Amino acid sequence: METLAKIKATGIILAGGQSSRMRKNKAFLPVGNLPIIERVLKELQEVCQELIIITNTPEEYQHLGVPVAVDLIPRKGPLSGVHAGLVFSKYYYNLVVACDMPFIHPKLATFLLTQTPGFDAVIPRIQGQPQPLFAVYSKACIKPIERRLHSEKRRTTDLYQEIKVLWVEEEVIRLIVDPEIVFCNVNTPQDWDRVNTRIKNE
User: Where are the strands (E) in 26-154, listed by range?
Assistant: First the structure.
């Protein structure tokens, strides 16, 4: 039985990376007893009424039982994935999460989504650095993203100059979750070892 009503928002999981440093699809690396992407889906389904996976290899994700879509403006990095997710999503506000973040937390996801009124995006900032891949974007971002992608400006953080952003600073996040854990991602075999060690020590 659910204890909280889900938010009318879409959880967009970006799974389009090449995993070049890992040499295998990091979305399916096991952390604890679940692949990372299944951990992400499990947490997001507590919060969002809709989930979508954005990937360039949709056949790999069909078994998860979640709608899968591909980039509409391909081969331009994570911003392409954000764009596709916003276009395909059912809701105006969307929580975008990378598929390699095994410890995302529904409390922070919920908090970010409740801060949206009056803003085009809600972006955490840790040690002064934006965290664009555990953040909220509205459909108002679609056109600005398209302009940037068509002009070969691919950096997600550069988008923020064109939209109305609410920055959620580290001191606020620390009242909800431990940012060192929640914003941890798995890019290398060493990262993978560290997150599994953390699981074993919990």
Answer: 30-31, 34-35, 48-54, 68-69, 93-98, 121-126, 129-130, 134-138
